[in-house]
C-alpha cells in the first residue's frame, strides 16, 4: 500500500506490522457524512423500490417458486465474481442429473451449492439469532467446507495476516492490507455493535456502511466477498425490509466490478463515503426494480400455463416444479408425481404438445427437456 493514499485519516489509520509492512485499521462506524438533496432522492428511490419488491414477495401465491431459483441465480453470480465458471444452466442440469453432469467443473458446482447452503442456513438462523459474529462464522463454515479454500479455517476468523492483491503479491506489495489480527478483533467487536444500532441511521445507509466495513476488516482467510454479499440480504431481512430473501446485489456488482472495488478503496483511502453509498443505493434500486419485473413475468407465465393445463392433472402436477428448476426428465417427473415412468412420460408429452417443454438433449435415453420461457426469465441480465 502507498501510505500517501491514506494521508487524511478520515476512515482509519495505518498500522506498522513487525514484519515491516503497513496495514489499514478502519475507524468505528458510523462516519460523519453530510447529505445533499440528490443523495436524499437516491435514498428515497431505493427505499421505494425495495418496499415494492417486499410487498410483491408477500403477495405471491407461492413465494418458494420465485425464491428457490433466485437463490440459485445469486449463488452462481456471487461465486462467479470469485472466479467460478458454472452457469445457472450448469447448476440446474447438474441438479437434474443428481450430480452426474459433465457440463462443468464439479468443484465449481460444489462452490455454488455451498453458497446456496450458506444462504439458506443464514435465513434459518435469523429466526433464532440476531445478525452477529456467531452467525457470520456459521455462514462461513457452510460456505467454505469441502471446496477451494477449505484449508482456510472454515467458520473461524483468521489468526494471521491476509491481503488483497494480484496473484503473487504479498503484504509488502499488495493493493490493500486489512487490519492485523489484534486490531481485527477489536474492529469486529465494534462492527457487531454497529449492527445492533437502531433508529438512528436509515436502514439502507447502515447496510451500505456495514458491507464496506466488513470487506475492509476482511476477517477470513478466504470467502470474505461472498459472506459480505450475503450479509446485505441478511441485514435487510433482519430489519424486516424483506419478508423473503429476494434482493441480491451480485448481479449489479458483477456488472460494475471495477467501480465497486474502486469505491470501496476510496472509502478507505479518502473517506469518500457518499459515492460508495450512492453506488449501493443505485444497485438496490436497479436490482429491486428488475427483480420485481421478473417476479411478475414468472407469475404471468405460471397463470398462463395453469390455464392451458387445467384439464390435465399429471402435467399440471409438474408445472410448479418447472419454476423451481425449468429442466425436466422422465425420471424427475416420475419422482415428483410418484407415478410410473410411462405416466411421467405421458405428462411430459402433454407439456411438449402445449409448447411448455422442449427436448434438448438429443439423446435416445436419459433425455431431458427445458421450459425455455422460464429459463430465459431467470437468466435475463440484470443491470
Describe this structure in words.
The structure is a single chain. With 383 residues, this protein is mainly α. Helix content is 58%, strand content 5%. Strands 3-5-4 form a three-stranded antiparallel beta sheet, with helices on both faces. Helix 1 runs parallel beside helix 11 and helix 11 packs antiparallel against helix 15. The longest helix is centred in the C-terminal third of the chain and has 36 residues. The two termini are 32 Å apart.
Which helices and strands, and how do they pair?
Layout: E1 12-16, E2 22-26, H1 37-59, H2 64-81, H3 88-96, H4 106-125, H5 133-144, H6 181-195, H7 203-217, H8 224-238, H9 250-255, H10 257-270, H11 273-308, H12 313-324, E3 327-329, H13 330-337, H14 341-353, E4 358-359, E5 368-370, H15 372-379
Antiparallel strand pairs: 1-2, 3-5, 4-5
Helix pairs in contact: 1-11, 2-4, 2-12, 4-5, 4-8, 5-8, 6-7, 7-8, 7-11, 10-11, 11-12, 11-15, 12-14, 13-14
**What fraction strand?**
under 5%
Can you list the strand order of the major beta sheet?
3-5-4
> What is the CATH topology of the largest domain?
Fic-like fold
**What is the N-to-C order of secondary-structure elements (H for helix, E for strand)?**
EEHHHHHHHHHHHHEHHEEH
Report the CATH superfamily of the largest domain: Fido-like domain
Using DSSP, what is the number of strands? 5
Number of helices: 15
Relative helix content:
55-70%
Q: What is the name of the CATH class of the largest domain?
A: Mainly Alpha
Pairing-aware structural class of the strands and helices?
Answer: mainly alpha
Amino-to-carboxy terminus distance: 32 Å
Query: Major β-sheet, in short?
Result: 3 strands, antiparallel
Low-pLDDT runs: none
The structural domain count equals 2
Radius of gyration: 23 Å
CATH architecture of the largest domain: Orthogonal Bundle
Mean pLDDT: 90
Form type: elongated
